[in-house]
Specification:
The complex is a heterodimer of chains A (67) and B (129). Chain A is elongated and about 55 Å long. Chain A contains 2 helices and no strands. Chain B folds into 2 domains: 48 residues; 66 residues. Chain B has 4 helices and no strands. Classes of the chains: A mainly alpha (67), B mainly alpha (129).
Chain lengths: 67, 129
């Protein structure tokens, strides 16, 4: 199984950019937009993670003979 | 070398998570989850080799196939339970982690019921009553 390390950097990058957007929106006085932007970013990354966890579980089921 | 790769990824993630935790703790958690997942996927490849070895040994001894399948399933349950419990612990949910481990132990015992009953029957046959 070749794992792409780029996903790690992707998540870290999205996190940092989200922190930046949060700060900028807060400075501009748009508190609620800052909150929603953070939430959307979190959900996007969460979808990525959920897909990967699905892959892992499929693989485990294949290896350890669960049917 | 694989070990150096894993340690490198672990250290890199630790640094990224330390940076990210101050800004956005939830993203740091997702990052740690992804890396744990990668390492587990990586180890799964190695475990396949070990399982192949165990299969070969079992074929030579002409062991009942049910035993081997049960053992593999038990290892799989332990693997998944460990993964889930570690993620829950990383997020600071000590209780959820402990409960996942409890569920893993119970399921392992349930899986082992046929083997245990066979052992008991064999022992009873050996005993001169």
């Amino acid at each position: 199984m070749s794992f792409d390390v780029s996903a790690i950097f992707q998540v870290a990058g999205i996190g940092l950019i989200m922190a930046m957007i949060h700060t900028i929106l807060k400075q501009a006085g748009k508190e609620e937009y800052a909150f929603w932007a953070g939430l959307v970013g979190f959900v996007v990354v969460l979808l990525m993670v959920a897909k990967m966890i699905n892959d892992l579980f499929q693989e485990i089921q294949r290896v350890f003979l669960f049917h | 070398m694989d070990m150096i790769q894993i340690v490198g990824i672990g250290l890199m993630t630790t640094i990224l998570a330390v940076i990210l935790r101050e800004q956005k703790p939830q993203f740091a958690f997702l990052l740690v989850t992804i890396v744990g997942l990668f390492i587990f996927l990586f180890l799964l490849d190695k475990i396949v080799q070990i399982i192949d070895l165990i299969r070969q040994l079992a074929q030579r001894t002409e062991l009942n196939n049910i035993f081997l399948e049960t053992i593999l399933k038990i290892i799989g349950i332990a693997y998944i339970a460990e993964f889930g419990a570690q993620i829950a612990r990383d997020a600071g949910e000590e209780g959820i982690g402990a409960k996942i481990e409890l569920a893993g132990k119970v399921f392992i015992l349930v899986m082992a019921i046929p083997i245990i009953s066979i052992i008991v029957e064999t022992v009873l046959k050996l005993l001169p009553i």
